[in-house]
Amino acid sequence: MLGTPHATRAGAGAGTGTGTGAGAGTGTGTGAGAGTGAAAGGGAGGGGGAGAGAHAPAPNARAAHAPLDDDALRGRQRSSGRHRLSFAIGLGCLSVLLAMTPARAVAFWQVSLDDSQDEGDATTAEIRGMFRWTGTWLDPAPPSGFTTAESVPEVHTYFLRVMSSLSVGEHISLDVHALEVLSASVRSLRRSLPPSSLRSPRSGFDPSSYGSSGDVSSEALHRTAALRWVQRSTEPVRAELEIDRLTARISAPPFDLTIGRQPINLATSAFFTPNDFFAPFQAEAFFRLYKPGVDAARLDVQFGELSGATLVGVLGYRHGAHPTDDTIRIDASSWLAQGRGTVGPVELSVLAGCVRSQSILGGGVQGEIFSVLGVRGEGHFVLETGVLELSLGVEHRFESSLFLRAELFYHGAGASKSDAYFEDAEVGGAEVGGAEPAGSALSAHSAIPYLGRHYAAIGASYELSALTLIDLVALANLRDGSALLSAQLTYALLDEAEAAVQASVPLGPRGAIQSTEPLGHQASTIDVAPTREFRLYPTQLTVELRLYF
Questions:
Q1: Does position 433 have pLDDT exceeding 60, yes or no?
Q2: Could you tell me if 391 and 379 are in contact, meaning their C-beta atoms sit under 8 angstroms apart?
Q3: What percent of the chain is helix, strand and coil (3-state, nearest 5)?
Q4: For site-directed labelling of 355, which of 96, 381, 384, 454 has its Cα 20 to 30 A away?
Q5: Nearest alpha-carbon partner for 436 in 336, 539, 316, 535
């Protein structure tokens, strides 16, 4: 049976995303009415969200241990005491929340703007919202031979998303999502070591974007800065307001046209999604309710109940010193066409187009074998470089609510061997600001945040009770032997409120550290090469509270 281990309990009308709860809606499906997807129902645009559970690589490090004087030692002891106190307060608040008795809450505000008796002709306005707090503690645990100035960074981030929509009859609708993000770090965070510095869109640990599909740079190439206002950018407190979605939709069956900032997702897999070219979720992200939007136009055409086509155009930008200086870049823009249909119980799709100046040809498959085993796969081939990206997975949901999923991923753009991550891997991620992006930032695979070529993932989800859900995800680099184990425990406090505890631990050998030459424009932040990818990730604990209204 098809499904997803990331079962986000969205509540009534909480919007689109992956999950099995009421209102979870569409997820990583491949088009309106396609009938299947990572969440039940297919999806016109992939739903999504800035999910929690994403992980930042380890902060930057020095090449030798530095002795501590008495003042420094006392400072660390005081800092450690503050950390323990804040940690205890956070767990205390969570204990109080878990003791609450679930009750009914109001999901959203809605009003009819005319007196039409026919619902199809009515004009309605709706306002919904979501508040999310995350408290994160990171222990960098760098490889042998390195130290960090701050051993256990602590970051608190507050997200307030206000969603408004206006529907004029059945054919016209307008949607706006405004997102306010406030982050406060207890300690100064250094920029990170690879893999972020090498080729991942995770260019350093950014508290304001923690837990999303990467950091701001992963989607900044396709978002004009004119819809983003930085209110404070000086540590330890950062604040910004951004319009995450701004769309106008015209629906006239069999056509459905959406223009503006919107989530775009043409993937079918869950963990490794090479066909999700625009701000993809990280494989270990549990919370996927709101996928970041990009500036795009999308046309869905429905040929039949289980067949159709999708045309997508996404703008790319060159960012200037001021938001009004943004200019559209043709070489950073993308055009894609996808056709899909069914053969028995299996849906097949074909994908072609130009992604950030590179021509791609690919496709996907999803369905069930003998009504028992779900199968998902996707991939693409880059014509200019000969790079192949391919993922394949299986899944099954048991009657006990246990859900299992496994995927394999071949990352053709990654390094061919673990001790050549520097030499073979290309630098990915879009530059923000006036600097010109690196050449590979415009590649079709630049948003894939991995260093090697061969990966595996195993996920499990189980409902411990009607109100409690546990999720597990294990990622492994099959070449260097490193792995990342992540888990989340979610408890439903109210119909529109939930609390979650997440943890992740890197596993495997630490590997040797080799000196290398500085890498171009990142020479000031890179002087080492990793040989064990996931061992560079931190041990992490996150506590979350999510409220929907």
A1: no
A2: yes
A3: 10, 40, 45
A4: 454
A5: 316
- Res 531: pLDDT: 72
Q: How far is CA 60 from the centre of its chain?
A: 23
What pLDDT, on a 0 to 100 scale, did the predictor assign at position 114?
A: 64
CB 199 within 8 A of CB 425: yes
| Tokens, residue 50 | 């800035």
Q: Facing residues of 128 across strands? A: 163
Number of residues written out for the chain: 549
CB 340 within 8 A of CB 307: yes
Burial status of residue 88 (CB atoms within 10 A of its CB: 0-12, 13-18, 19 or more): exposed
DSSP 303-356: EETTEEEEEEEEEEEE--SSGGG-EEEEEEEEEEEEEEEEETTEEEEEEEEEET
Task: Please report, for residues 203, 395, 420, 530, the alpha-carbon distance to residue 527 in angstroms, rounded to integers and kept in the order given.
Answer: 16, 41, 14, 10
How do residues 34-65 score in pLDDT, each as one tens digit? Answer: 333 333 333 333 433 333 333 333 333 333 33
pTM higher than 0.85, yes or no? no
Taking the C-alpha atoms of residue 142 and residue 192, their distance in angstroms, rounded to an integer, is: 11
- The answer to whether the beta carbons of residues 189 and 205 sit under 8 Å apart is yes
Residue 226 tokens, joined: 């004119």
Phi, psi angles (nearest 5°) of residue 48: 120, -170
